[in-house]
Amino acid sequence: MARNVSVQTKIGFTIAAWAIALLLFSPILWVVLTAFKTEAEAIANTPTFLPQNFTLENFGAVQDRSDYFKHAFNSIVVSVGSTLLGLLIGIPAAWAMAFAPTKRTKDVLMWMLSTKMMPAVGVLIPIYLIFRDLRLLDTLQGLTIIMTLINLPIIIWMLYTYFKEIPIDILEAARMDGAELYNEIVHVLIPMALPGIASTLLLNVILAWNEAFWTITLTSGRAGTLTAFISSFSSPQGLFLAKLSAASLLAIAPILLMGWFSQKQLVRGLTFGAVK
Amino acid sequence: MKLLTLVGAFTLALAASASAQTLTIATVNNGDMVRMQGLSSAFTEETGIELNWVVLEENTLRQNVTTDIATNGGQYDVMTIGTYEAPIWAKQGWLAPLDALTADASYDVDDILPAIRSGLSLDGKLYAAPFYGESSFIMYRKDLMEKAGLTMPEAPTWEFIGEAARAMTDRTADINGICLRGKAGWGENMAFLTAMSNSFGARWFDENWKPQFNTPEWKNTLDTYLSLMADAGPAGASSNGFNENLTLFQQGKCGMWIDATVAASFVTNPTDSTVADKVGFALAPDNGLGKRGNWLWAWSLAIPASSQNAEAAEKFIDWATNKDYLATVAAAEGWANVPPGTRTSLYENADYQAAAPFAKMTLDSINSADPAKPTVKPVPYVGVQFVAIPEFAGMGTNVGQLFSAALAGQMSADDALAQAQDAVTRDMTRAGYIK
């Protein structure tokens, strides 16, 4: 039965929700507005809210100096590729932990998560040396592998949580009917956990898309992603804020659109199983 | 199975095919570098060597190229480095000496300004070729100076600067007599303060690497800076760096600004600057001790010892830093846009002198800085606004934070100096300089 909520409370919560959402969105809004200002206006001491001299020249300047589409293509390959590779490894791993746990399963999960607790720069030199020796520096393959490894703990944790919500009886019923392990996972488990898998996929594409430390450090031009593209527009001497904003806007536009369209799926997946 | 095929396709796709010789060049996003990138197709046409540009923000660039060069990674064939890195990396054996270039008569290495050349050399060998050089000087508002009833000498003293800054300040009209760097960092406020301290007779270390922050010279430097900023500086100065002060000056909020000579072309550019026709220039101030408070920096091109394409890389460096390149830029974009501060011949060129009113002052500022003998008293290090040892970046930033806190009023000058002395002594002892 629904709880009785007074109109005032409802209005109060709605206002609070909007306020928080606007607060979170304000830096992005500022980037969007700045991208259409001139350099002088972008850094003016009394900031203007809306562009006074609306201009598209920043986008022209950005594309002139750098190849947006090459970087965008690299970003798509690395984020989608690493997420698919991660799911390929993560689904069987999460299956094992959810449906065939041992007494050490919890420790293994914790141990995986612990790899996320170390600052990335702590392993920079070993990773760099390995990449150098395997000739993976500045390659999309190398970036895809490192991104998979970085996000794998999150993928496994998320999938494990979703799989735990699925009654094991259904899988056992499938086994009784003679389904092999492959069929059990592909034809029974995956369709049932699809919302969870989809939200894992979306979240990891976003995480890989935004990753800046490794994508900048391990590339030098050929395999550079959009994070390296943005980084190239900052300058210690001279005006650059409007161009940097234009570059940022171009870089976040695809992922913003993707998030927009898959919003329903994302929310459903993230709250999947929260209330039974 | 579909999933597997997709993954396979993504991971196996797109191995870079390199048929022609390709050089990977790491550089920063400064105007002169961007211009070089734009003009570089001429080099490719001439030599058939393809160029792969990596443009990064200064600190990211420093981290990337340091990682690569320290691990012998070989990602880059040409690196853009400064006068701080050049002698340190050369000493480590990380850079290939530019012997062929210095031996080439048409390159005319003797034309390079002596102060810049000495900052990029180790034991007489050149390890990086200067692309553009800069010093620091005073930019001031001629109209405000006149209003204050003063005349800026060509080579003012700190006493005059203090007097002028206070006289030009008009808090009601939001005009600050002087704008100086306050943002913490070895390349931020410490570049300015270390150069300033040279003119006060201070030094980072004595001949035995003992830190000198407990000396009256440093106290005098910091007291002068803090009182000047309190009386005539802008609000919130402790977070101001080059770009923040540039904006203030361009919008007419500063009477004077002491910073990089490269700023001259920004503040006199009428599209961005509201005071473009009112700017005068003068040498950085001194105290009559024989050293001025100006620094010396050169963004330079170097070849890492790990490069597989050293010969082609040297060809590129030749193209980008020889006299012909200056003429190429002049033909394409005018003499005012030529990278300054590297060659004597540029300053003898009448066209350049006409196009750049700040040319002579820039040259005099560069010539008056001596990285080999930066201070009044002798020191065991090279570098004007820095100390060319690997430990300096960390120490400089620590001390910069203390001085920035003093500027923000969070601690006294004496506390900042005492803590700086302790911190630097500890670091130098740990690094083995102090036995």
Overview of the structural elements:
The complex is a heterodimer of chains A (276) and B (435). Chain A has a domain of 167 residues: MetI-like fold, CATH 1.10.3720.10. Chain A is 71% helix and 0% strand. In chain A, helix 4 packs parallel to helix 7 and helix 7 packs antiparallel against helix 10. The radius of gyration of chain A is 23 Å and the shape is globular. Chain B has 435 residues and is of the alpha/beta class. Chain B has 2 domains: 182 residues, D-Maltodextrin-Binding Protein, domain 2 (3-Layer(aba) Sandwich), CATH 3.40.190.10; 223 residues, 3-Layer(aba) Sandwich (D-Maltodextrin-Binding Protein, domain 2). In chain B, the strands form 2 sheets. In chain B, strands 1, 2, 3, 6, 7, 8, 9 and 10 form an 8-stranded mixed β-sheet that branches. A two-stranded antiparallel sheet of chain B has the order 4-5. In chain B, a hairpin with a 2-residue loop joins strand 4 and strand 5. Chain B is globular, with a radius of gyration of 23 Å. The termini of chain B are far apart. The interface between A and B is large, with 44 and 55 residues. Chain B: Its main location: periplasm. Chain B: It is found in: Periplasm.
Question: What's the quick description here?
Answer:
The complex is a heterodimer of chains A (276) and B (435). Chain A is mainly α. Chain A is 71% helix and 0% strand.
Strand and helix map with partners:
The complex is a heterodimer of chains A (276) and B (435).
Chain A: H1 7-35, H2 39-42, H3 57-65, H4 68-99, H5 105-114, H6 124-133, H7 140-164, H8 168-176, H9 181-192, H10 194-210, H11 213-217, H12 226-231, H13 241-261, H14 263-270
Chain B: H1 2-12, E1 22-28, H2 31-39, H3 41-47, E2 50-56, H4 58-70, E3 78-81, H5 85-92, H6 99-103, H7 114-119, E4 121-122, E5 125-126, E6 129-141, H8 142-147, H9 158-168, E7 176-179, H10 189-199, H11 216-232, H12 242-250, E8 254-260, H13 263-267, E9 279-283, E10 296-302, H14 310-321, H15 323-333, H16 344-348, H17 350-355, H18 359-367, H19 392-407, H20 413-430
Parallel strand pairs in B: 1-2, 1-3, 7-8
Antiparallel strand pairs in B: 3-10, 4-5, 6-8, 6-9, 6-10
